Amino acid sequence: MLLPDLLFLVLFATAIGALVYAAVAAVRGRTRQAASIVIRTAVLAAVYVGLVYLAAAVTGPKVVPLGRANCNDDWCFAVVRVDRVVSGPTVRYEVTMRLSSRARRQVQRELGARDVYLVDLDGRRFHPVPGSSQVPLSSRLEPGQALLAQRSFTLPAGAGPMALMIERHDFPFCVIIGECDAFHAGTRFLLE
């Protein structure tokens, strides 16, 4: 667990504790104290979320070289191999990815990762060929376990340099400093 994750957990637990204390104060008739606690907790939560988005605004998109893992909490993802086959007017990309867990005790899975797609310099998306090896990105990983997943893509031969991106379905707003893609397209995994 990294420092931003730990900071979020500590602040979240503190906010829950403060709201429970405010509820107890309200039940005991100290509504003014309870309201003050709720307002301070809300202001501090807004400041924290503002810092998360400020960090996202001042950092650029993350670019990950071929073979290097990028981790979200204890779930890690890497592009480990790319085979490119030219066949007339099309190019077929066979991409091998490694899903791994750096957890020591807990089973991991990434529920926010739907699938992957390729993107060129113009931002055009190319989705995987249906039926290509479908090890889901949300597969359960035991502590220290790694799985290989493959996806195939067929593109026009003239398509420019490609990068792989993860199609995500995340929480409606960002809560972890350094993991927010609100102001850019997301993490790009280089294929060369």
Give a topology summary.
Elements: H1 3-27, H2 31-58, E1 63-64, E2 70-72, E3 75-87, E4 90-101, E5 113-120, E6 125-126, E7 146-156, E8 162-168, E9 188-190
Please tell me about this protein's structure.
The chain has 192 residues and is an alpha+beta fold. It has two domains: 3-58; 63-190, Sandwich (Immunoglobulin-like). The protein has helices at 3-27, 31-58; strands spanning 63-64, 70-72, 75-87, 90-101, 113-120, 125-126, 146-156, 162-168, 188-190. Helix 1 (3-27) runs antiparallel to helix 2 (31-58). It is elongated, with a radius of gyration of 21 Å.
Largest sheet: 5 strands, mixed
On the 0 to 100 scale, the average pLDDT is 86
Radius of gyration: 21 Å
Number of helices: 2
